[in-house]
Amino acid sequence: MTRQxxxxxxxxxxxxxxxxxxxxxxxxxxxxxxxxxxxxGELGEGAVLPTERELAERFGCSRASxxxxxxxxxxxxxxxxxQGSGTFVAGPKLVQPLALVSYTEGLxxxxxxxxxxxxxxxxxTAGETLAGxxxxxxxxxxxxxxxxxxxDGERVGLESTYLVADRFPTLLEVFDPEQSLYxxxxxxxxxxxxxxxxxxxxxxxxxxxxxxxxTNPALPMxxxxxxxxxxxxxxxxxxxxxxxxxxLSFTTRLGPTP
Length: 258
Description:
The chain is an alpha+beta fold and 258 residues long.
């Protein structure tokens, strides 16, 4: 039977038991990280983090421990580095719903202005994998739209959408790449999204993707892979969206709304 250890503090405000093992021994950098989190709460969003030397003196530790703790918090999106300016306390992550709503709708609900920068707009033929996902014959004509996703002007992701060309013969005539694709499909072409299957996983960006998004290729990314279909049950869209994990999180609701 596991022995229960009495602990101070409030439950549910972070990792269970603040991430500290039952034997109580933690790496020095992690102890610094816990204290840094308290400091970030005191400083507030947008505040400049003190220097490594100042933090090492404040916490009575080595600069190496501070450096590792700060690096962890940058990876988690709690801190943001700006070259030549320093390290700043980051704001909360953007939350994107796992639902049949567009990127535009998801951000505007949070008071954030969405944007897009067009990378590719072309007609291509479907390879075997894409054709299989959309129940097509290999070589079927597709419309490919690739765009950098922005949030308040900041690059946060890269979206690559493939649509069955035969289903949308006038799309390129009415579509504005800087606006919501889903709004265009719904309002101008009368498309009804009846359902979708979505998969979320972590991965590293390719050098090309990292350059377009403006991130370090060594940082973990969130990959969303979606296939959508209409009322007839036939899929017509495949989307691959790559997001900076430090800037976005995803949410879904299970069960009825209370």
